[in-house]
Specification:
Number of strands: 11
Shape: globular
Structural class: alpha/beta
Order of helices and strands: EHEHHEEHEHEHEEEHEHEH
Radius of gyration: 17 Å
CATH architecture: 3-Layer(aba) Sandwich
Number of helices: 9
Helix content: 25-40%
Strand order of the largest sheet: 2-1-5-11-10-6-7-9-8
CATH class: Alpha Beta
CATH superfamily: Histone deacetylase domain
């Protein structure tokens, strides 16, 4: 069995412009590293389908989808907010990201792959149901969670979000849905200014704010003490991961101290819980990470945990 890597060239056509940190080069660096890594023969590169309107509407309002469609430029660029820019290729890229996440869930359920990684962009976890935000147009991890329930009947889904920024959009979408456990580790105080109120907002929302400078040793202790017990208590039938690699010590947009080795460790913990709880069902979706070398190395290291080989 292989690890599926869902991707599509359309995701490279989303171009927020020169100097924007969420650049096409991010995805190019990830794909290049995965195609040449030590376990490349265990990876199956799968073309991501276009997400459908019905899939987008699993997590978003009709008004939001219409706004994105209406604002999609045919030339030049348009700013939806100071950080979130659409180019002529952005809508298609965002739909590929949605399609990849849903197809990855389907492939795992069908037994085609042991795990899946969606090497797509733009990221998604800042987008609530009704607007774009923070580089994100559609929240593909939220769509995947709803898809896992609607299409495959999973009643308990867990989302682990280790991006350095709090996934405010994901939390908002599932704030009243106790069937979905949402866990976020993130730097705080930091963008977007949420995720700070308490470690546990509700029984199914677990925020773990981290102070600037938190290194891998402290991060691992927090993960072991809070994240793993919460996952085991929830007993998920499917685990989804918002895999942002911007908590790396070399990332230019944040101030945490993780390394590629820490991301392998995180992957190992998630894989172990998945084997014990849900027959290994894990789909990870690329979120942030803005130092190209650190991003590529961390993605390889993280995914190596799911094939049982060291890449560090």
């Amino acid at each position: 069995m292989t690890i599926a890597v869902f991707h599509h060239a359309d995701c490279l056509a989303h171009d927020p412009g020169a100097g924007h940190p969420e650049s096409p080069a991010r995805l190019s660096s990830v794909l290049s590293a995965l195609k040449t890594c030590d376990f490349a023969d265990r990876l199956a590169f799968v073309e991501a389908p276009l997400g459908t309107r019905d899939q987008v509407l699993l997590a978003h309002t009709e008004a939001h989808l219409r706004d994105i469609e209406a604002n999609a430029p045919t030339r030049s660029r348009i700013a939806l907010d100071p950080d979130t820019i659409m180019s002529p290729g952005s809508l298609q890229a965002a739909l590929r990201a949605v399609g990849a996440a849903c197809a990855a869930v389907d492939g795992i359920v069908a037994g085609k792959h042991t795990a899946a990684f969606c090497a797509t962009r733009p990221p998604g976890h800042h987008a609530p149901s009704n607007r774009a935000m923070g580089f994100c147009l559609f929240n593909q991890i939220a769509v995947a969670a709803r898809h896992a329930h609607a299409q495959h009947g999973f009643e308990r889904v867990a989302i682990v979000d280790f991006d350095v920024h709090h996934g405010n959009g994901t939390e908002a979408i599932f704030a009243r849905d106790s069937n979905v456990l949402y866990i976020s580790t993130h730097q705080w105080p930091f963008y977007p200014g949420t995720g700070e109120a308490s470690r546990s907002v509700t029984e199914h929302i677990l925020n773990l704010p981290l102070e600037a400078g938190t290194d891998g040793t402290r991060y691992r202790r927090i993960f072991e003490h809070y994240v793993i017990p919460a996952l085991l208590a929830h007993g998920p039938e499917f685990i989804l991961v918002s895999a942002g690699f911007d908590a790396h010590r070399d990332d230019p947009l944040a101030n945490l101290g993780l390394t590629a080795a820490d991301y392998r460790w995180i992957g190992e913990q998630i894989a172990t819980v998945a084997q014990n709880s849900c027959e290994g069902r894990v789909v990870s979706v690329l979120e942030g990470g803005y130092n190209l070398e650190a991003l590529a190395e961390s993605c390889v290291s993280y995914l190596s945990a799911f094939v049982g080989q060291s890449a560090v």
